[in-house]
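Input record, target 12 of the design panel.
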């Protein structure tokens, strides 16, 4: 299947951070957050990046787990402790690729295909569940000011 076949079969739509997605699960149970908001216990989505698509730097207020399904290796770049950390999701375990990764809450991160060709299909789960009110897309100037040593990456992914 091509990326466009998968997008059509899974009914994916464009995501504001880049790529395509569809929510597949939202727990019926809810909880109150420390800020006094109500969130579902967990959510899950399919997420697909194709060719030179990027998931631009963003962060959310919950932990997010990424699970690789198929396609090309997907690189996730996290900005933590002032330094970029790179994780590669894929099926080549002997080459250091991971079948899943955890993005800690409030961590700036971005993603792209490691070789900018083909596609990667992953799932993402968030707990407490995802809510766009907890989503922050990075502003380039502010992120460069916070991580000047990663200015080139920030410019590439904002």
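The sequence produced for target 12 reads:
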């Amino acid at each position: 299947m091509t990326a466009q076949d998968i997008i059509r079969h899974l009914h994916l739509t464009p995501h504001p951070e880049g790529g395509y997605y569809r929510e597949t699960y939202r727990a019926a149970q809810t909880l109150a957050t420390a800020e006094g908001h109500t969130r579902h216990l967990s959510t899950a989505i399919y997420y697909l990046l194709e060719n030179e698509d990027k998931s631009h730097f963003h962060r959310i207020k919950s932990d997010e787990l990424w699970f690789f399904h198929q396609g090309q290796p997907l690189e996730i770049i996290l900005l933590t402790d002032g330094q970029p950390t790179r994780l590669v999701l894929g099926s080549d375990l002997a080459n250091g690729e991971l079948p899943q990764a955890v993005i800690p809450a409030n961590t700036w991160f971005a993603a792209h295909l490691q070789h900018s060709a083909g596609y990667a299909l992953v799932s993402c789960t968030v707990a407490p569940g995802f809510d766009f009110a907890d989503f922050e897309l990075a502003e380039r100037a502010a992120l460069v000011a916070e991580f000047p040593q990663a200015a080139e990456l920030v410019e590439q992914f904002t």
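Helices lie at 3-9, 140-146, 151-156.
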